Amino acid sequence: MRPQTIDEVVGQQHLVGPGKIIRRMVDARLLSSMILYGPPGTGKTSIASAIAGSTKYAFRTLNAATDSKKELEVVAEEAKMSGTVILLLDEIHRLTKPKQDFLLPHLENGRIILIGATTENPYIAINPAIRSRTQIFEVKPLSEQDIAHAVKRALIDKQHGLGKMPLKLTSEALTHLCRATSGDLRSALNGLELAAKSTVPNEKGTIIIDLQVIEECIQRKSLIQDKDGDAHYDVISAFQKSIRGSDADAALHYMGRLIESGDLISINRRLLTIAYEDIGLANPRVAAQTVQAVIAAEKIGLPEARIPLAVAVIDLCLSPKSNSAITAIDAALSDIRSGNYGEVPPHLKDAHYAGASKLGRGIDYKYPHDYPHDWTKQQYLPTKLVDKYYYQPKTNGRYEKALKEQYMRLKKAQQVKKSYRDNNS
Length: 425
Known about the structure:
- The protein is α/β, with parallel strands linked by helices and 425 residues long.
- The chain has helices at 13-16, 21-28, 44-55, 69-82, 97-109, 122-125, 128-131, 144-156, 171-180, 185-198, 211-218, 230-244, 248-260, 264-279, 284-300, 306-318, 324-337, 398-414; strands at 34-37, 58-63, 85-90, 112-118, 135-138, 167-169, 207-209.
- It has 4 domains: 6-138, 3-Layer(aba) Sandwich (Rossmann fold); 144-218, Helicase, Ruva Protein, domain 3 (Orthogonal Bundle), CATH 1.10.8; 247-318, Zinc Finger, Delta Prime, domain 3 (Up-down Bundle), CATH 1.20.272; 327-414, DNA polymerase III clamp loader subunits, C-terminal domain (post-AAA+ oligomerization domain-like, Orthogonal Bundle).
- Helices cover 49% and strands 8% of the residues.
- The strands form 2 sheets. A 5-stranded parallel β-sheet has the order 2-3-4-1-5, with helices on both faces. A two-stranded parallel sheet has the order 6-7.
- This is Replication-associated recombination protein A.
């Protein structure tokens, strides 16, 4: 099911869609060496294969960890004899210096177009000499819709897929297959193939792949109990609301359901959102620790990912809460979207060009660092909004309580006429 051309690539439209960078390279036949990095099963090898198929260049695949310098020499000789070769080098972060030194001159003269694939951050894991000769592109997890498209294509493709088999995939099984594989198309297609080839046909000769079969073949339990799959989103909703409500046991229960279904992506996204939306300025420390826990979970994967995630959930649940940040930005956006905004004060406008002063731009601006305590009274909001209070501090945590005191001192020093409305009074 590997794509034969760039048009057949599933997902990654930020790279291969119309007008995007890799599509432009292929259309212009001006390929440069690149590194594709991202989670497993998201299309790194497929993009390389599609580039080769679209340009008609020879395509070879090696592994930086297991293939020797001799295999690289064979590819180099082929490139000398027949012209440009596209080399997909998997696990490029494990490329040794002797292999790297051999490759570099071939990358320089353009005989070998290197496409390195890695799950590691190339800015950390890959030698600068290789990085400087490649463009780096991030490959992202596929959406459920992307995987569903590829699965349906596999079911009807008689040449490369399962189209010759009398298969029927139920809607519940399709939903679970696309969701539980967490953006990993290879896992989805492997699970589908195993299900198709290991399920006994019914009395009519049809192979029915239902939810139970898919659960067994991908080893992920489904949370779907209704036809439309709403139960999954109900669990995600209950997960966030339990953390917001400071119930650690309920939050762990719902996260356990999501872990059992293999939905690491939803857990990570919810935790990052909760950390800033529901805890926010009451405890900024926990937001930073949540980010670290999510990064750790992504690196080690399930089942071990449950450990840093559990730490983050308990910490978030038992932390003081504040939604003042999201309330503040939404209040500002509401004014802007309703047209309630004014002109930027002249003294704040850009003055870094000839003639700006003649237009009154930047005149009388006071540089705060020239004053005691690096602050001086000065208007910043547009005149029609000068008395606006978007930020309404809460005092559930010591940090935001201190922020409130500073906020009020500054407002008082600015001598804003409108009285402050304290939500907590």
